[in-house]
């Protein structure tokens, strides 16, 4: 019984000595939010989001996703994905990337849009 009480006291003492998590300090990551909230992309096809040439998310209309990424540059490529909706089939697409520079502690919000060159990201305000 005494050893159990001593262990509990030791754990309490160790937890008091440990630093508390805080959101006030500088963070070592950046938040990237990508949304497909508006009807700017006139297709029911799913859109794949590739970060540094790796499929990282899939978005249907009215969806958004977010990533916690290290600061620095990230290449983002958007692509229509085949298979989930009738009429969405694989084909030749523009394989260009958009290079984004992310800063530590920064929240970046982008919206998917489309023009004659294909899908791209446009920066928007946070709106919070």
Tell me what you see in this structure.
This is 3-isopropylmalate dehydratase. Residues 1-23 form the signal peptide. There is one protein chain. The chain is mainly beta and 128 residues long. The protein has a single domain (27-123), classed as Sandwich (Immunoglobulin-like). The protein is built from one helix and eight strands. The longest helix has 16 residues, at 2-17.
Number of helices: 1
CATH level-3 fold name: Immunoglobulin-like
Oligomer: single chain
Question: Could you say what the CATH architecture is?
Answer: Sandwich
- Cα(first) to Cα(last) distance is 53 Å
Q: Tell me the total number of β-strands.
A: 8
- State the shape: globular
Helix content: 10-25%
Structural class estimated from helices and strands: mainly beta
Largest sheet: 4 strands, mixed
- Rg, rounded, reads 22 Å
How is the largest sheet built, in terms of strand order?
4-1-7-8
CATH homologous superfamily descriptor? Carboxypeptidase-like, regulatory domain
Organism: Pseudomonas cremoricolorata
Protein name: 3-isopropylmalate dehydratase
Signal peptide: 1-23
Keywords: Signal
Question: What are the defining features of this structure?
Answer:
128 residues; mainly beta; Immunoglobulin-like; four-stranded mixed beta sheet; 1 helix; 8 strands; globular; 3-isopropylmalate dehydratase; signal
Helices, strands, pairings?
Elements: H1 2-17, E1 30-35, E2 46-51, E3 54-59, E4 64-69, E5 72-81, E6 98-102, E7 107-115, E8 118-123
Parallel strand pairs: 1-7
Antiparallel strand pairs: 1-4, 2-3, 2-5, 5-6, 7-8
